[in-house]
Amino acid sequence: MSTAVMERSESLVMEENQTVKVQSQMEIKREEKASKITVKDLNLFYGEKQALYGVSLNIREKEVTALIGPSGCGKSTFLRTLNRMNDLIDGVKITGDIMIDRENVYKNNDVIKLRTKVGMVFQKPNLFPMSIYDNVAYGPRMQGIKNKKELNQIVEESLKGAAIWDEVKDRLKSSALGLSGGQQQRVCIARAIAMKPDVILMDEPTSALDPISTLKVEELITNMKKDYTIVIVTHNMQQAARISDKTAFFLNGEVVEFDDTDTIFSTPSDQRTEDYVTGRFG
Amino acid sequence: MVIRENFENNLKELKRKINEMGELSIDALEKAFTALQTQDVEIALKVIEEDTDIDNLELEINQFAVWLMAKEQPVARDLRVVVGVLKISNGVERIADFAVNIAKSTIKIGKANSLLDLTDLEKMKDISILMLKKSLKSFLEEDIALAKEVSDLEDEVDQYNIETYKKLTNYLSEHPEETNQLVQLLFVNRYIERVADHITNIAESTAFLIKGQMFDFNP
């Protein structure tokens, strides 16, 4: 054996033990995406009662952002500020800024345009008592689209986008209310997509669904993020862990922690977050 | 009301079982070494027989841990505890297997003029048992300083391992008639070194549980 080889094998055998921290996969940085929604120091009052305290969040484009937290922590209230649904409630006062695509949501008075851009899906399927087709075509028609061919195309694309087309293509003219809950919820998503929004807000979209329908909607959300920015409120923490890229933990109207979902569910930095995700309180 | 009290109790139970398994392994190592020192085949056979208890306990712990994962869907630290338990039980089981190997070597040596005093095997065994105690305590009490101490002790075992190897091979060249016993002692030297490695892995699993980061204590 040559001296060099001897030395190398010696150093391999004798190498002094060192403590090496191995880079965990969780820490690998994701590609930074552009910010879609920027919220700065948002406060919200229902009359005298303050519901949100200085919320600041950056929601990035084409990602799923989950909002979690115990009941009454302000996550749904926050979600509804993003397309000004709280305007419908008397005595609501809001301070701070919400910018979507660098445009201040509360300084622009065109709420219709805002809600076209920022669609919403609710807890319970809320389809209109009309046919499946008319439900999905409702928004585009209100926008003045009359061309039958164009409407057909929008309806088909939207239903396909919501992964429900194959199940309803032969019964488009029958009442939407005849569908199962899970199917109705996906038609609601199709109805939101039909407006070609950029952002889709979802307020506990699967809480009224059975487990299989829930998984279908989750699968759908995961596939939809290539085209949309999605913000979802969920009480199901496993769901947040499965489908979201970012998670914000709300508590008593404040954001306690906002980070990559991987971090929130593996090594959160705030003890309250850890206690909540591990089910120690809430 | 404490939320998830049942789950907390189940995690405690898992830790208790790991501790029990660890104590059985320490006992097995001590017995195997006593057998080696006193050339007592009876004790050696006992170590081999009693290994079944440790294997069964490992199986029980694994089933319990898998069931907890399915039922409770633990996340964050809770998940690391359950995964840690799976890895640690595997490590402890391997350590007990080495105790069995030492017992088998004892049987192979049989009645002979013991050459154990030539070696540092007893020191290595003592340090290994200290390491195992520390690593179990570090796991149960989630104390990372103890985990680090374990990895430092491993360096000592490695050093003794190298020296014992040299002493035994040197002696072998001069006393070929003792080959049988010397080869078995070389094996035991190797077994204890492996035991220390597995204990260091336990310390690494514990460090991961506490910090949420991977550590490599024996690169």
Automatic annotation (TrEMBL), chain A:
* One Pfam family in the UniProt entry: ABC_tran
Q: Which SUPFAM superfamilies match?
A: P-loop containing nucleoside triphosphate hydrolases (SSF52540)
Where in or outside the cell is it found? Answer: Cell inner membrane
A GO biological process this protein is involved in? phosphate ion transmembrane transport
Per its record, what are the GO molecular function terms? ATP binding; ATP hydrolysis activity; phosphate transmembrane transporter activity
Keywords attached to this entry: ATP-binding, Cell membrane, Membrane, Nucleotide-binding, Phosphate transport, Translocase, Transport
Q: In what residue span(s) does the ABC transporter domain sit?
A: 37-277
Q: Look up the domain of life of the source.
A: Bacteria
Q: What is its main location?
A: membrane
UniProt entry tagged with the keyword Secreted: no
| Recorded GO CC terms | plasma membrane
Q: Does the keyword Protein transport apply?
A: no
Q: What is the membrane topology here?
A: Peripheral membrane protein
Q: PANTHER family, per this entry?
A: ABC TRANSPORTER I FAMILY MEMBER 17 (PTHR43423)
Q: What's its job? A: Part of the ABC transporter complex PstSACB involved in phosphate import. Responsible for energy coupling to the transport system.
The record, for NCBIfam families, names: 3a0107s01c2
What is this protein identified as?
Answer: Phosphate ABC transporter ATP-binding protein (PhoT family)
- Organism of origin is Ureibacillus xyleni
UniProtKB/TrEMBL annotation, chain B:
Report the transmembrane regions from the record.
none
Residues folding into a coiled coil are none
- Identify one Gene Ontology CC term for this UniProt entry: cytoplasm
Name the GO terms of the biological process aspect: intracellular phosphate ion homeostasis; negative regulation of phosphate metabolic process; phosphate ion transport
Q: Which residues form the PhoU domain?
A: 18-105, 121-205
Keyword Membrane assigned? no
Does the keyword section mention Signal?
no
Pfam families registered for this protein in UniProt: PhoU (PF01895)
Record's subcellular location: Cytoplasm
Q: Which UniProt keywords apply?
A: Cytoplasm, Phosphate transport, Transport
Similarity annotation: Belongs to the PhoU family.
- Assembly with partners or alone: Homodimer.
Sum up the protein's function in the record's words: Plays a role in the regulation of phosphate uptake.
Could you identify this protein by its name? Phosphate-specific transport system accessory protein PhoU
Native species? Ureibacillus xyleni
What lineage does UniProt assign to this protein's organism? Bacteria, Bacillati, Bacillota, Bacilli, Bacillales
